[in-house]
Amino acid sequence: MTPTGQGGEAKAALGAEIGRWLQQALQQSFERLGEGAGEDMSAWVDAAPQPTAPALLARQHPGGAGAQQEAEQLYQRCLAQYRKVVRPQDAVRGQDDAAAALAFFIAASCRAHQGIEVSPATLESLERQMRGTLSHSGRWNAAPLAQRQSQVEQAAILGVLMADSWAQARPAGAAAAAKV
Predict the structure, then answer these.
(1) Could you give the angle at which helices 120-135 and 5-37 cross, rounded to 10 degrees?
(2) Phi, then psi, of 48 in degrees rounded to 5
(3) What CA–CA distance (Å, rounded) separates 70 from 63?
């Protein structure tokens, strides 16, 4: 049934105005929700005064004390590269973004193992997904700070190691890149 006459036209105009107002209100609500999603602080971890992941990863290395010391130095360089090159904005805060570290590791893995280049927009989407996953993870939220710091450092180190290894192997051909 459609409105007719002068009263019907007024009702139709009012209905259209209410529809525009609701659409605008919903759009603003979604924009605010999107802004708030990025501000979840559960993924942020104070950077450890002395990183623990390089030594932890190096202890898993075969070859004795000399090989482990070399590995630890490599992992320290990887972590420094992550903080200076990949995520320098986090250093200003004195914190590490666990969601960003995990997203970077996933992106480096996709490139090295599947040949998939992850665009900046996709990396941001991965970060949001990781942020949501971390915010709902009881284990992550209950873990001691030192453990969360180490896990973030490990993701950052392994992401840089994978990205750099792939970049060095790529010019040598597909066979070399497949060994990354």
Answers:
(1) 80
(2) -65, 140
(3) 10
Closest CA to 54 of 85, 77, 27, 37: 77
For the cut 60, the answer to whether the pLDDT of residue 177 exceeds it is: no
CA 156 vs CA 86, 98, 111: distances in Å: 9, 9, 16
Judged against a pLDDT cut of 50, whether residue 33 lies above it is answered with: no
The residue count of the chain comes to 180
pTM for this one?
0.73
Per-residue burial over 102-111, b if 16 or more Cβ lie within 10 Å, else e, is bbbbbbbbbb
pLDDT digit string (tens) for 129-146? 999 999 999 899 999 999
**CB-based burial, 14-24: b 16+ in 10 Å, e otherwise:** eeeeeeeeeee
Distances 50 to 47, 77, 111, 149, 153 between C-alpha atoms, Å: 8, 14, 30, 10, 11
